């Protein structure tokens, strides 16, 4: 079975999910391979969820949270950062390419930054090209 | 023997060390009491019972109500034995950590079978370097529930003798055995304050404690900076009393496997360190945190390295 590659995006409820909403309202295009999962805080994303997604066949996982110091729960972003280091080290241990995981900070007023991160991840994994995702020039 | 047929018990061992079987023997009088509750029909370590190959070359094992399988699956022959056990036994129990989570042998899942064989049996003068024998190996060590349906996991390296006897007796009586689903920490009496050292010490470092004082005045070993696997390991090693390693004032090694059936001890422990802000890079050889649970694809050969 030839399934489309999928990128799982864990978006925090307060910043990046709002940014994704705004991206929709602003009609910004991002690759169809992205599947957003809303979480209350990126600090709650257990490394196991990321590993599970990759093991179950996701091409990549991107965690999108509030800028450091702007977390709704004060310290969630720091925790996400500490967990991202663990994930990166574990991926290396398991021989999984580091580029399949990424952590980015996006505030609720930065939909362009979110879309750029999605697009960059998708291109890095070679998904955008294969599926003919519109580039900014062609899409607008 | 009374006229009523006792439930039959069949035991097989795969890629293990026979420690689980010895633990059952170690039950002493409890084990003798068990002999009045079950009829052991096949048990490699205890009895000299031969199992001729069946018509299709499969091992022929006697039928039984309760089946115990110790050890993980490393070869095709072991897989055949396991499948026959599943077919022949009404209730199949994964006996010990190797059967449940891969155990110590699954540490070699961080290399391929070829790498492992050529490292251990290198050169032409070794028996296992012949190609025909190496063909019988699977690609890695598997827990038995990766191949067949398992009714109960009875982890432990080895499981506590009293617990083994209790589980078999409960199954023989048609009851559901009661095994704890809580972590080692839930059974640990040491003092936890919620904050501790921000660095990880070597496992070889001694804990700080006063030998005369009772265990419940010792500070939690994890908070002392020792890498205790207690938070990510299922309890039960000490029965209703305190965990065995803690009793000896050394950190838990994690031999009962993860708390949740499909849990990952390495990730869970690193996650705890991360949420407390402790630098996980201070751990020497962190991959060995999966020393008892490397099956289920948790330990993989590093393709790049």
What is the arithmetic mean of pLDDT of chain A? 87
Provide the CATH topology of chain A: Rossmann fold
Number of domains as seen in the coordinates of chain A: 1
Domains of chain B, number: 2
**Major beta sheet summary of chain A:** 4 strands, parallel
What does this structure look like?
The complex is a heterodimer of chains A (140) and B (305). Chain A is of the alpha/beta class and 140 residues long. Chain A has a single domain, classed as Rossmann fold (3-Layer(aba) Sandwich), CATH 3.40.50. In chain A, 44% of the residues lie in helices and 16% in strands. Chain A contains 6 helices and 4 strands, in the order βαβαβαβααα. The longest helix of chain A is centred in the middle third of the chain and has 19 residues, at 76-94. Chain A starts with 6 loop residues before the first strand and ends with a helix. In chain A, 45% of the residues are buried. Helices cover 23% and strands 12% of the residues of chain B. Chain B has helices at residues 19-25, 29-34, 76-88, 97-101, 113-120, 131-134, 161-172, 244-247, 265-276; strands at 8-13, 39-42, 64-70, 73-75, 89-95, 137-142, 152-154. In chain B, the strands form 2 sheets. Chain B has a 5-stranded parallel β-sheet with strand order 2-1-3-5-7, with helices on both faces. Chain B is globular and about 60 Å long. The mean pLDDT of chain B is 88. Chains A and B meet through helix 2 and helix 3 of A and helix 9 of B.
Topology at a glance:
The complex is a heterodimer of chains A (140) and B (305).
Chain A: E1 7-12, H1 16-25, E2 34-39, H2 47-55, E3 60-65, H3 76-94, E4 101-105, H4 111-124, H5 127-131, H6 136-139
Chain B: E1 8-13, H1 19-25, H2 29-34, E2 39-42, E3 64-70, E4 73-75, H3 76-88, E5 89-95, H4 97-101, H5 113-120, H6 131-134, E6 137-142, E7 152-154, H7 161-172, H8 244-247, H9 265-276
Parallel strand pairs in B: 1-2, 1-3, 3-5, 5-7
Antiparallel strand pairs in B: 4-6
């Amino acid at each position: 079975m030839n399934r489309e590659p999928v990128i799982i995006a864990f978006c925090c409820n307060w910043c990046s999910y709002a940014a994704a909403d705004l991206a929709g309202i602003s009609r910004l295009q991002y690759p169809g391979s992205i599947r957003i999962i809303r979480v209350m805080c990126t600090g709650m994303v257990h490394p196991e969820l990321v590993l599970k997604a990759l093991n179950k066949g996701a091409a990549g996982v991107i965690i999108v949270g509030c800028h450091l110091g702007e977390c709704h729960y004060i310290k969630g972003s720091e925790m996400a950062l500490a967990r991202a280091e663990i994930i990166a080290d574990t991926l290396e241990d398991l021989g999984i390419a580091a580029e399949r995981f990424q952590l980015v900070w996006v505030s609720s007023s930065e939909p362009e930054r979110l879309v750029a991160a999605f697009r960059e991840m998708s291109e890095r994994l070679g998904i955008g090209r294969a599926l003919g995702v519109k580039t900014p020039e062609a899409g607008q | 023997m009374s006229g009523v047929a006792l439930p039959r018990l069949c035991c097989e061992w795969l890629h293990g060390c026979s420690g689980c079987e010895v633990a059952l023997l170690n039950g002493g009088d409890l084990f003798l009491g068990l002999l009045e509750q079950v009829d052991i029909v096949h048990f490699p370590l205890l009895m000299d019972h031969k199992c001729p190959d069946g018509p299709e070359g499969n091992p022929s094992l006697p039928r039984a109500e309760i089946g115990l399988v110790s050890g993980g699956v490393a070869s095709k022959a072991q897989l055949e034995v396991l499948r026959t056990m599943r077919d022949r036994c009404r209730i199949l129990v994964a006996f010990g950590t190797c059967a449940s989570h891969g155990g110590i042998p699954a540490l070699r899942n961080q290399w391929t079978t070829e790498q492992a064989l050529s490292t251990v049996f290198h050169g032409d003068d070794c028996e296992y370097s012949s190609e025909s024998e190496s063909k019988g190996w699977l690609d890695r060590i598997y827990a038995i529930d990766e191949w067949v349906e398992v009714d109960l996991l009875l982890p432990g390296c080895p499981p506590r003798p009293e617990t083994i006897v209790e589980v078999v007796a409960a199954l023989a009586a048609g009851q559901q055995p009661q095994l704890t689903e809580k972590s080692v920490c839930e059974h640990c009496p040491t003092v936890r304050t919620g904050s501790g050292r921000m660095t990880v010490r070597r496992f070889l470092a001694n804990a700080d404690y006063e030998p005369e004082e009772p265990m419940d005045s010792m500070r939690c070993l994890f908070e002392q900076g020792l890498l205790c696997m207690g938070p990510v390991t299922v309890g039960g090693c000490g029965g209703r009393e305190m965990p065995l390693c803690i009793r000896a004032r050394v950190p838990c090694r994690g031999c009962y496997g993860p708390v949740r059936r499909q849990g990952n001890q390495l990730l869970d422990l690193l996650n705890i360190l991360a949420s407390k802000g402790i630098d996980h890079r201070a751990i020497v050889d962190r991959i060995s945190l999966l020393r008892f649970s490397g099956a289920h694809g948790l330990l993989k050969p590093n393709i790049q390295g």
